[in-house]
Design brief:
This protein is mainly beta. The protein is built from no helices and ten strands.
Length: 115
C-alpha cells in the first residue's frame, strides 16, 4: 500500500502563492496518473488538478491558469504550485490517484487564504 504525505500548506494573503508537495512511498508512483484534491469545510472533496504518468495535465475551471501540477517520478513526489490565491481556495489539500481505486488518504495539508 502506498503512503502519501502532503506538506507545504499554510496561511497566505489573497493574491499570494504556495507550493504543495506530496511524497509517495513505493516505486509504483510513476506509473499512475495522480491528482490534487481539496475539501473545504462543509463541502465534498473535489479533484482540482491531475497529471498523467507522461505529464499531461488537466485542471478544474476554478483553478485553471492559477495552479500548476507537476511531478518528479525519480523522487516519487507530486507538486502543486498555487498562485493568485483567493479566499475560496481555503481547504485541506490532498493527493491521490486521479482515476481508479484511490490509495489510503494522507492527512492532507491545510491552505488558508485570508487577510
Amino acid at each position: 500500500q502506498v503512503q502519501l504525505v502532503e506538506t507545504g500548506g499554510g496561511l497566505v494573503q489573497p493574491g499570494g502563492s504556495l507550493r504543495l508537495s506530496c511524497a509517495a512511498s513505493g516505486s509504483i508512483f510513476s506509473i499512475y496518473g495522480m491528482g490534487w484534491y481539496r475539501q473545504a469545510p462543509g463541502k465534498e472533496r473535489e479533484l482540482v488538478a491531475s497529471i498523467t504518468s507522461g505529464g499531461s495535465t488537466i485542471y478544474a475551471d476554478a483553478v485553471k491558469g492559477r495552479f500548476t501540477i507537476s511531478r518528479d517520478n525519480a523522487k516519487n513526489t507530486l507538486y502543486l504550485q498555487l498562485t493568485s490565491l483567493k479566499s475560496e481556495d481555503t481547504a485541506v489539500y490532498y493527493c491521490n490517484r486521479a482515476r481508479g481505486p484511490v490509495w489510503v488518504w494522507g492527512q492532507g495539508t491545510q491552505v488558508t487564504v485570508s487577510s
